Every structure is written in C-alpha cells, then in structure tokens.
Amino acid sequence: xxxxxxxxxxxxxxxxxxxxxxxxxxxxxxxxxxxxxxxxxxxxxxxxxxxxxxxxxxxxxxxxxxxxxxxxxxxxxxxxxxxxxxxxxxxxxxxxxxxxxxxxxxxxxxxxxxxxxxxxxxxxxxxxxxxxxxxxxxxxxxxxxxxxxxxxxxxxxxxxxxxxxxxxxxxxxxxxxxxxxxxxxxxxxxxxxxxxxxxxxxxxxxxxxxxxxxxxxxxxxxxxxxxxxxxxxxxxxxxxxxxxxxxxxxxxxxxxxxxxxxxxxxxxxxxxxxxxxxxxxxxxxxxxxxxxxxxxxxxxxxxxxxxxxxxxxxxxxxxxxxxxxxxxxxxxxxxxxxxxxxxxxxxxxxxxx
Length: 353
What we know:
alpha/beta; D-Maltodextrin-Binding Protein, domain 2; 2 domains; ten-stranded mixed sheet; 14 helices; 15% strand
C-alpha cells in the first residue's frame, strides 16, 4: 500500500543522549530542595522522546531526565536496577518486554483514572500484565521496500513472508536483531505463531542468507533502506510513514500470510524514587492532549486514547491482514529466552551463511 505522507507542523528537536545521561547520573547546575524530579527511559523515536520531555517539563516544572533505549535495552536496564531503581517510568517500546517486566515484578501495579477512555487493545494489554503496564500506542508490522531499488534488481516487489527468502533478495533484507530490538523479537515471535516454532526457525535460516544486516533497533532497518543500503526492511508501518513524510521513496505492505500489530506500552517502575511524579506523568501520557503530540514528532502510531482524533489519510487499526497476536505467550520470559537462545544458536551462529 502507498501511504500518504503528512505535512507536519512544529520544529523537530533531537535528544542529546550524552548530556541527558550525565544529568541522569549526577544532575547539572544548582538545584533547590523543592525541585521535583522524574527519570524516564524512552523507547520510541528520539524526536518524540525529546518533545515529550520538553513539553512536560515546561508545563509542570518537574526536572525531567530522559534516556533513549530500545525496548530490549530498557528491560535490561530495569533488571540491572532491580535493587536500587533509578528509573521512574518506561515510556513506549514493543509490548512483549513490558509484559516480561511485569512478570518479573519490575513494574508497579496501577490502574489509570483514564482506563475507560482507552482503546480495547490498550485495556487488554493492562489486564494481561496485571495492570503493571498499559497500551500506549499500536502499529502494524510488515514489509517496507524501495520501489526504485526493487526495479533495478529486476524483481517483483515482496508481498509475502515467503517472498523474502527468494534467491534474488540475497543480502537485500534488513531487520532488527531479536536480541537487542523489540521489533526483531516481534518478527521472530510472529513467525513462530504463523509457522510453528520449528517452521519459523527453518524459515529464519533461509532468511538469514538474505539479511544484509541485523540492526540494533527496529527503526534502523527502514532508515537503512532509505539510505540505499538494502532494498527491503521488515519493520513498522508508522516508521514507513515517517520516512515518506520526509520525502523518502518507500512502499509498505502487510505480508499475505498475515502480520501482528504491536502494542507499545507504558509502565511505572516498582520501587522508584519519585513515585508521585511518575504517576502524574503516567496519567498525562495517557491523555488525549499528550498523545496528540506524537504527530508533531512525525510519529504515526495508533493512539491508545480513544479521544484522539484520527488523522485524515492515516490507515486505521482495522486493516485486513493483521493477525490476533498471542501477546501473553510471547510476553513470557520463558518463551522469550527459549526463542532467543534458538535464534542465536541455530540462525545467527558463526558459519551459518
């Protein structure tokens, strides 16, 4: 499907990760005893993270430190901080790692006052996680490709998962590394659901020959295709729309066999140093005003707050081809560990070319 780019308003800003990380660890400049603080690990687009930080800090006066991490890295951060949490809130990122954090009691049980305003899929995510997480946004997984590069290869555009293992796509596919990218893990788990576990690994071994690079994060796959480093990326529809909005030549399709929609999530960290500030931010993040900010950062996920007005031309969440993904199964730490161990040993093993 060709997704119409959108003209966006508002100046984009970028997160200075090193500066904010230093502020996170030590603080910068004189701070009064009355200063309220909030530490957030953010797993969405850097532009969105920074816009959230700037807007919320200006509106509340809370001194807000934000670091950007993939969802797998954010989960690892929370695990490392278990005995002495420095993080207060985990904002965004694929939902499976949030469910794994909930399972390990790394996050706090909390039911938002706005729960009834949320989309059913966002409410379902909260119930699956025992109200230790909640749906923040959603977006469909699929195949993005550069039509000009496909034409130069002299091949038909990929329409199905099965197309990506064709010999003509050798070293032409980008995807997130399942061990570091929530998107990568979602690809692995979705294929497991579609093909069965053994069938998925047989497929992944064939796909491995065509993968040019396993990127650190999921969005990087699409960005690499935009830069011409490959022809095809497995990634999210909203990231493809973002690239199109910048003028990139990119097409997106839902695989003919079906594909899941992620549920990007929001979680409060258990035992955090700033629980009052964390809950205030959590409520704000689920509000329609806060979720509308995403469009200013060229973030085109479907919002969890049902009061957020739909954007003309933006595909809706009822697209044909989206499967009923088993979030509970693949949000299990045991299942995740088994799948990732098999992927490392059987697919990405040295010499498996």
